[in-house]
Amino acid sequence: MEKIPIIKMVNISKNFGAVKALQDVNFEVYPCEVVALVGDNGAGKSTLMKILAGVYPPSRGEIFIEGEKVNFTSPADAISRGIQMIYQDLAVADNIDVAGNIFLGRELEKKALGGFTKIIDKKRMEELAWEALERVKINIGSVREKVENLSGGQRQAVAIARAISAKAKIIIMDEPAAALGVKETHELLELIKDLKEKKIAVVYISHRLENIFEVSDRVIVLKGGKRIADRQTKDTTMEKIRQLIVEGV
Ligand SMILES: Nc1ncnc2c1ncn2[C@@H]1O[C@H](COP(=O)(O)OP(=O)(O)OP(=O)(O)O)[C@@H](O)[C@H]1O
Ligand SMILES: [Mg+2]
Questions:
Q1: How many Å apart are CA 40 and CA 6, to the nearest integer?
Q2: Residues 6+ apart with CB under 8 A from 144
Q3: Which protein residue's CA is at the shortest distance from atom 17 of ligand 1?
Q4: 108 near 125, Cβ under 8 Å?
């Protein structure tokens, strides 16, 4: 029996006015897979993943989650189906503490005043935030720390902890290593390997081929809004992928 992909995008096209950002793109992700999405600036990578994450509707095409057709009208729709996207710029909210970030948009409440009202359950959120951080094996002094005081790697880890604790089936990372140092990038790659073991699939968008070859199972290349290649990482080389990105063949 053929394995059912967790994500299947079929013939996706997206126009922004006269710009054809995507043309008839197919994209699938199988359970526990780490898929690298590569291509030059403007190739359509972020647009394709924003469509999957419910940020934009496609102009044409269909999306299936575990075989079931979906029509996302907002990121909340995608999140409720286990799709989490970590955006490079707005990975986390700076002026909120770590626990608050992990529960952003799904704050826990508890009854107060003998059941007459509800208040935010800060204590429970902090306990669960610690658990989530332990799972991503990142050292942060306190879950009450404001995120603006964290390093790039720690911020990325908070975003991943949030995705895991929201029960993500698939985590999309758009250029996660762009703002990270060497050690932090190494930690991020270890985290991705760990997600795979937790049976969470990952889509990793990056221009850094050495990182891609370290963590991915498959590489998909976009060029000018079209999918031009789909390779098992073990069956290809960095040189070949670089050539596909630049020359298209
Ligand atoms: N909101 C938007 N409005 C208009 N055009 C857009 C919008 N978003 C993307 N585009 C255009 O769509 C095309 C694909 O952009 P996209 O951001 O998906 O590329 P990318 O592969 O993520 O590039 P990069 O590697 O630079 O992040 C580009 O021509 C871009 O200018
Ligand atoms: Mg992009």
A1: 26
A2: 97, 98, 99, 126
A3: 46
A4: yes
Say yes or no: CB of residue 39 within 6 Å of ligand 1: yes
Query: Which domain-ending residue is among 149, 167, 185?
Result: 167
Instruction: Check: CB of residue 188 under 8 Å from CB of residue 208.
Output: no
Do both 178 and 236 map to the same domain? yes
In this prediction, residue 1 has a pLDDT band, given cuts at 50, 70 and 90, of: low
23 CB within 6 A, ligand 1:
no
* Full-model pTM: 0.88
Whole-number Å distance, alpha carbon 15 to ligand 1 midpoint, is 10
Lowest mean pLDDT among 33-37, 77-81, 138-142: 138-142
Say which CATH number the domain at 230 has. Answer: 3.40.50.300
- Assigned domain for 106 exists: yes
246 C-alpha vs ligand 2 centroid, how far in Å?
Answer: 16
Are 204 and 159 contained in the same domain? no
- Ligand 2 mean position to 83 CA, how many Å? 18
Residue range of the domain that includes 74: 1-82+168-249
**Number of Cβ within a 10 Å radius of residue 225:** 22
